[in-house]
Amino acid sequence: MTDPLTPVLTRNWRAERSWSLAAYEQAGGYRALRHALTAHPDQIIALVKDSGLRGRGGAGFPTGMKWSFIPQGPDGPGAKPKYLVVNADEGEPGTCKDIPTMMADPHSLIEGCIITCYAIRANFCAIYVRGEALHPIRRVRHAVEEAYAKGYLGKDILGSGFDLDIVVHAGAGAYICGEETALLDSLEGKRGQPRLKPPFPATSGLYASPTVVNNVETIASVPHIVAGGSEWFRSMGTEQSPGPKIYSISGHVERPGQYEAPLGITLRELLDMAGGMKDGIPLKFWTPGGSSTPLFTAEHLDVPLDFEGAAAAGSMLGTTAVQVFNETVSVPWAVMKWTEFYKHESCGKCTPCREGTYWLVQILERMVHGQGTEEDIDTMLDICDNILGRSFCALGDGATSPITSAIKYFRHEFLDLIAAQPAVARPEQLAELSGASA
Amino acid sequence: MTAPEGSSPFDEVTRQRTKEIIARYPQPRSALLPLLHLVQSVEGHVSQEGIRYCAEALDLTTAEVSAVATFYTMYKRTPCGEHLVSVCTNTLCAALGGDAIFERIAEKLGEDGKPLGHEETAGEPGTPGSITIERAECLAACDFAPVIQVNYEYFDNQTVESAEQLVDALRRGEKPAPTRGAPLTDFRTAELELAGFHPDLAASVEGPSAAPETLRGVELAAERGWAAPALPDEMPAFPALPEKS
């Protein structure tokens, strides 16, 4: 049985200038790289497969398996250059784990990149950081410079014969670029619009070459797996969802923040650690992993927050961005706000998502204005049904999550809002509904 | 389509930087996003001339560059103030006061009883103390809600009052210190940094490792004696090389 909190990725965040090479090396940093360079690349892929590490960006795809899809060999697709692209475009509402990671411990990301590139035999890596994260960009760029100066990057790394260059690329403000194929298009200097899959990035990614796209937290986990081994990693979490995970608690709790626990912790335990509900006002609803994961309620306090547990209870683990809302927050209002977000961020490529989110916003804004009808509820469910699974990427699917789950658990609130007509002006109602401080 | 010699706002330094950006990537077009940031660092927004400049640098059409420039929210189509103030009004921040903050500063910066709108500027764009405001989507700082950014530096745990004070100070030409991050400069300098040119990275990279909120989990663990299972003394051997199928 492991402890309730198991800091691995966050362990050195308290150190003085933890982001510097000196502090990172003092804590044992770059030893895993030296160890990894003694192995055959395929052994590293096998190790990561054995560890059971699953992608930390939301989808939970097995990382070692993703790496093993990269074609190798002297001929055919294996002969093309291979790339690692790190998805640091953190923007899923509620998600705030990668930015503190890059702020406090950029070298763990860089060391993870080098080991990963060695394993998949890539000589170029791009770290795509959302543009609004200026200070994390400075930290990562500085870490890259320090790593070059120390011989961890560049030509013939530590005498291994392996070459690697890393570029830190700033995005320009588009949630959709967190979707891996949109990110690749964006990195190619285009509008960030998702590609139809297949072909998957493993065969046709950046510049149509074999590419691994992994999240920051995934890559930062790699040096720890090399240092500790797969058995050590599996001693945390569950059989299907092993390892530690950064849970980001935000909203109406006493002590919001980052809590790194073995996968499978529950909201009840997390709430206890975060000091309980703010001012003792009861919990109303929460997201287990960002706004694209269907809402949970107080009924779900004991759902194990791992990939299987969240799914079995009707939601998804997502990015473990736990947003907690108390009883003062109107569900239709919150759903309206999220839907406005999806409408704004829909890239416009696929009709169901582009048009559907537009119509959903119109209906929800009308409802919150006090002009909804009962029929609107069914209309929204119908629109959601026409978005879900009918677009290239998961943005449209995610847009339906808050709506369908809110209607499932809080239909009465939509009905109450309709019954509470006549209309009131939007700003006043919003302030009243959201409990916003004046 | 080339601008007459001497009239271009893009000087020799910018042209040199353009070459450096393009050289970073395996393929030149990947330089377009950083180049648009570079253009904004010169002009305070992306003008038609900026679009032509990028198109020429990368051998693209102006239509191709426009398509990209208009897709991303960080590229501004009208001149920006000395500072860009972004207020997160996504659901969680809004519920904790983000909407009220935006409304209050919009009122405060407005004229003749008309509040300043999203992406509108108080003061003459580019002059000291001018401010452009915007409603931002989730800024990935939810444990510090509600948050504001000024030139993409975080100001955490805001209230209507603290936001008003922040805006007042900016209007007076002051540069209040961000909660995390480097001392405040201006929008154009931030854009230059995003393009990959940090005037003094060794200095600007400094600042706290993490905010107190970020460390709550790791501190609670230390307090209660909780830890991950100990790492083995020696790094374990790698699995045997898989047999080729």
Automatic annotation (TrEMBL), chain A:
One function term, GO molecular function aspect: FMN binding
Coiled-coil ranges per UniProt: none
Pfam families tied to this protein: Complex1_51K, NADH_4Fe-4S, SLBB
Family matches, as InterPro entries: ComplexI_51kDa_subunit, NADH-UbQ_OxRdtase_51kDa_CS, NADH-UbQ_OxRdtase_suF, Nuo51_FMN-bd, Nuo51_FMN-bd_sf, Nuop51_4Fe4S-bd, Nuop51_4Fe4S-bd_sf, Soluble_ligand-bd
Cofactors, names only: [4Fe-4S] cluster; FMN
Biological process, per Gene Ontology: cellular respiration
Keyword GTP-binding: no
Domain NADH-ubiquinone oxidoreductase 51kDa subunit iron-sulphur binding: from-to ranges: 332-377
Catalysed transformations (reactions): a quinone + NADH + 5 H(+)(in) = a quinol + NAD(+) + 4 H(+)(out)
Record's keyword annotation contains Iron-sulfur: yes
Family membership: Belongs to the complex I 51 kDa subunit family.
The protein, known as: NADH-quinone oxidoreductase subunit F
Lineage, uppermost ranks: Bacteria, Bacillati, Actinomycetota, Actinomycetes, Pseudonocardiales
UniProtKB/TrEMBL annotation, chain B:
Textual note on the cofactor: Binds 1 [2Fe-2S] cluster.
Key word Phosphoprotein present: no
Keyword flag Transit peptide: no
One Pfam short name: 2Fe-2S_thioredx
One MF annotation (Gene Ontology) recorded for this entry: NADH dehydrogenase activity
Keywords, ordered alphabetically: 2Fe-2S, Iron, Iron-sulfur, Metal-binding
Cofactors, names only: [2Fe-2S] cluster
Domain of life: Bacteria
Binding site for [2Fe-2S] cluster: 88, 93, 138, 142
Assigned protein family: Belongs to the complex I 24 kDa subunit family.
UniProt xrefs under PANTHER family: NADH DEHYDROGENASE [UBIQUINONE] FLAVOPROTEIN 2, MITOCHONDRIAL (PTHR10371:SF3), NADH DEHYDROGENASE UBIQUINONE FLAVOPROTEIN 2, MITOCHONDRIAL (PTHR10371)
Name of the featured protein: NADH dehydrogenase subunit E
Record organism: Pseudonocardia thermophila
